[in-house]
């Protein structure tokens, strides 16, 4: 069962974005085939680091300046209605959380963030993928 964290934006709105571990997210996606799985990482990360099988890429921000994508919400709205479940993943779970808050502000009602993301947090040797994450958990992924 997903954990629910209440997040406040601008002190007035409260949202209840749900957070999954990678294994919980995979199970949810298998059980809910109409859910949209969005990888919010950059195009280079998606293509060359790899991505979960079945995820579509809609970057939250991208190079060269790493500004927030002003069309992110509009692109998600083209792919899904506001009441369709949206599962978001990034490298370690931070960008996807920010993207999820933007979707909730735009009226999306079922937004899920994947904790630890695709690669997980840095370990003591400053490497990713050794402690947690979609790939670490052995879930389906591919590279282009």
TrEMBL record:
EC main group: transferase
UniProt KW keywords: Transferase
SUPFAM superfamilies: Rhodanese/Cell cycle control phosphatase
E.C. numbers: 2.8.1.1
Alphabetical list of InterPro entries matching this protein: Rhodanese-like_dom, Rhodanese-like_dom_sf, Thiosulfate_ST/Rhodanese-like
Gene3D superfamilies in the record: Rhodanese-like domain
Domain Rhodanese: 31-143
A GO molecular-function annotation: thiosulfate-cyanide sulfurtransferase activity
One family name in Pfam for this protein: Rhodanese
Protein name: Thiosulfate sulfurtransferase GlpE
